[in-house]
Specification:
The structure holds 2 protein chains of 2 kinds. Chain A is α+β, with helices and mostly antiparallel strands. Chain A has 10 helices and 21 strands. Chain B is flat, with a radius of gyration of 27 Å. Classes of the chains: A alpha+beta, B mainly alpha. At the A-B interface, strand 6 and helix 2 of A face helix 8 and helix 9 of B.
Chain lengths: 393, 308
């Protein structure tokens, strides 16, 4: 699937501002972004439920812009599931097949009793519905109505209705957001397995970074109607192209510190000169950031307060502590600059690090990410990066 | 030292006191409504049922129990049979037409963006207008020589009939006015029903291959309107059983009983001929129909068309 220059306006508001994506066949793509970033609109345009103002969508090399939703060979799972409440689970799943395989005359009430060929088609449909139901383990529910199902069961029926006609592209619009936390984790694994089994292209829209990180081959991070980065989940976390991506992905949020570029290949952060050759003109303002997991702290003791170490570490005070059992998060106020850093520590050290303790924070150059004033990533060596090209599929 | 646990005896009394308090509160809350229902609904109904078994005449000093005599007289009476027949014809014309047209109007108005409020108001006007006053206007409009309807027909070369005095036509003329009057109300109910259908369902249907308007209507709109439709049908049927105003103002049941309907028979027997006992028996027949409709609605709502 190829998407080129998609633009969509709602009145005076520009919702999509030039979206270009190349998606490989069979890939699991997650569109991740905060609410209002245009991710749902993007999906609705791909589905054909909304018309773009500019740009085009191609599936298998064929432009689908002029096609109706049902002609695009896509299936969609809605956030609300959108099951037909008056139909049983069986009829819900069978509906897309009935619409495609039976003529309108054969669909008239009672015709399936009289028409022989309709009966044969109907038998084929029933076999297919049972096959899908078996795959999703909802066979015992086939005779029920949606009102008698739990959230997770409705979710599965919606997936069944989408997969029964074997579409080329599977669209999912925040399909897990109406489920409770435990079920969400479970369905996450189930959907990923389903993708591996049926092997078609999945496009999955979510605002939940855990879903994006755990399920997808590649993640599109969208902000303000533009894709900022399109890369495998690991890269989005460890190698963000944009400050907004760095801030959106990762919990707790990435630490940021204001810095100034100095001549001779260093950045001055809170009085420290960090060796980092940005290639930017001296005096340029940059943002230096560091993941909480890479933020290492040490208690300030007389022997660590030597001149040697003081030149490479920031002095700070612990102002707040969060012990989650598996992780200990320390919020540290850095002296001299108006910034609070969060450091992840081993909970075993909880006794050693009380609130109010004076500490030192190192800035390990290998983990530092620098961003210029417009939020674009600058790498050591002065190379400016452009939007990542899609990885070879 | 006092025991921490109260003896069973005390506990038992405490529970009984609490039960009593709850019962009193329930009585105080439900009492007034129940009393009003009894005084204004149940009691009159019982009175009518009892009266229908007597020969009571309005203003008479005495009455006599006559058993089912009123009923046997009624079912043998040609006028009553005619009246019942006319009412059933009237209902069977008005219900499908006004429900169908109301649904059609609602679908059309909901489909378009422009002038929605205007159309809604126009269709709803007859519902708000006083039917007696409107009946007089209709009487003018349907005048065989000077009426607007026949003048319009004449201008295109059709000789219009005498709408209100032709015994083959008069009942259908009244039914037409009945439809005119109830379409707007049905339309508003259907519009509310249409707006309650989630947009998601139409989008899911579009993705599932439901591509034309008829399939969309059959797959989503009509099933989702089920509860509303049933309500509209039952309400319209009950309201058309009650047809009276137009008959009273325009035809007085004539010509030659051609537009005699149940409520008009009830009125003329009870308040023109003062045969209250007989009128009460007619009322019981009318009530039987309305009750049957209400029961049908409850029965259906409980099992067939309820989703939630």
């Amino acid at each position: 699937m190829v998407i080129r220059g998609l633009v969509k306006n709602f009145g005076d508001t520009r919702v999509l501002n030039g979206v270009d994506l190349d998606i490989g066949a069979g890939e699991f793509i997650t569109v991740l972004g905060p609410s209002g970033c245009g991710k749902t609109t993007l999906m609705r345009i791909i589905a054909g439920l909304e018309r773009q103002d500019a740009g085009s969508v191609e599936i298998d090399g064929r432009p689908v812009d002029a096609l109706r939703p049902n002609e695009r060979d896509i299936a969609m799972v809605f956030q609300s599931y959108a099951l037909y409440p008056h139909l049983t689970v069986f009829d819900n799943i069978a509906l897309p097949l009935r619409m495609r395989r039976l003529s309108w005359r054969q669909r008239l009430p009672g015709m399936r009793r009289i028409d022989r060929s309709a009966q044969a088609i109907e038998r084929g449909i029933a076999a297919k519905v049972r096959e899908v139901a078996g795959l999703l383990q909802i066979e015992p529910l086939l005779a029920r109505k949606p009102a008698q199902l739990s959230g997770g069961q409705k979710q599965r029926v919606a997936v069944g209705r989408a997969m029964v006609r074997e579409p080329r592209v599977f669209l999912m619009d925040e399909p897990l957001s109406n489920l409770d936390a435990e079920l969400r984790v479970h369905m996450r694994a189930e959907i990923a397995q389903l993708h591996r089994r049926i092997g078609v292209t999945f496009i999955y829209v979510t605002h939940d970074q855990a879903e994006a990180m755990t399920m997808s081959d590649r993640v599109v991070v969208m902000m303000g109607g533009r894709p900022l980065q399109f890369a495998p989940p690991g890269d989005v976390y460890a190698d963000p192209e944009d400050l907004q991506v760095a801030r959106f992905v990762g919990s707790p949020r990435i630490n940021t510190l204001p810095g100034t570029v100095h001549a001779g290949g260093s950045i001055e952060v809170g009085g420290l000169a960090v060796p980092f050759d940005t290639g930017l003109a001296p005096g340029a303002q940059v943002t230096v950031s560091l993941r909480p997991a890479d933020t290492k702290i040490a208690l300030q003791t007389p022997d660590t307060a030597g001149a040697d170490r003081a030149g490479r570490e920031l002095a700070a005070t612990i102002v707040h502590r969060e012990n989650l059992g598996s992780d200990l998060f320390l919020h540290c106020r850095v002296e001299g600059i108006d910034a609070t850093l969060v450091a992840r520590e081993d909970p075993g050290k909880v006794g050693l690090l009380p609130v109010g303790a004076e500490i030192r924070i190192g800035l390990p150059v290998e983990h530092l990410l620098a961003f210029d004033a417009s939020g674009r990533r600058v790498r050591p060596g002065g190379r400016m990066t452009s939007l990542a090209q899609p990885a070879a599929a | 030292m006092t025991p921490l646990v109260k003896p069973a005896q005390d506990l038992h009394h405490a529970y009984r006191r609490r039960d009593l308090r709850e019962a009193l509160a329930a009585l105080a809350l439900a009492g007034p409504a129940s009393a009003l229902i009894f005084v204004f609904l149940i009691a009159p109904l019982v009175c009518i049922a009892l009266l229908s078994l007597t020969d009571y005449q309005l203003g008479a000093k005495a009455l006599r129990f006559v058993g089912l005599h009123n009923y046997s007289e009624m079912f043998a009476d040609r006028v009553f049979r005619r009246s019942l027949e006319n009412t059933l014809i009237y209902v069977s014309v008005v219900v499908p037409l006004s429900v169908g047209l109301g649904l059609g109007a609602a679908l059309l108005i909901e489909a378009g963006e422009s002038l929605r409020a205007f159309y809604r108001t126009v269709y709803f006007l007859p519902v708000m207008a006083t039917l007696i006053a409107m009946a007089i206007v209709w009487e003018f409009a349907l005048h065989p020589k000077l009426g607007l309807v026949n003048l319009a027909l004449k201008s295109v070369g059709i000789a219009g009939p005498d709408w209100l005095h032709d015994r083959h036509i008069v009942l259908y003329t009244l039914a037409g006015i009945g439809v005119w009057q109830s379409v707007g109300f049905n339309m508003v109910l259907f519009m509310a029903g249409l707006q309650a259908i989630p947009r998601d369902l139409y989008e899911a249907a579009a993705v599932d291959g439901v591509s034309n308007a008829w399939d969309r209507f059959r797959t989503v709109t009509w099933p989702m309107l089920g509860p509303v439709s049933l309500f509209v049908i039952v309400i319209t049927a009950i309201r058309s059983f009650q047809v009276f105003d137009t008959v009273q103002v325009m035809t007085k049941g004539g010509p030659n009983r051609a537009s005699e309907v149940l409520l008009y028979t009830m009125y003329s027997e009870g308040f023109e001929f003062f045969r209250t006992g007989y009128a009460a028996a007619v009322t019981m027949v009318f009530l039987a129909f309305v009750l049957a409709l209400a029961a049908l609605k409850t029965w259906f709502l409980d099992r067939r068309v309820h989703y939630a």
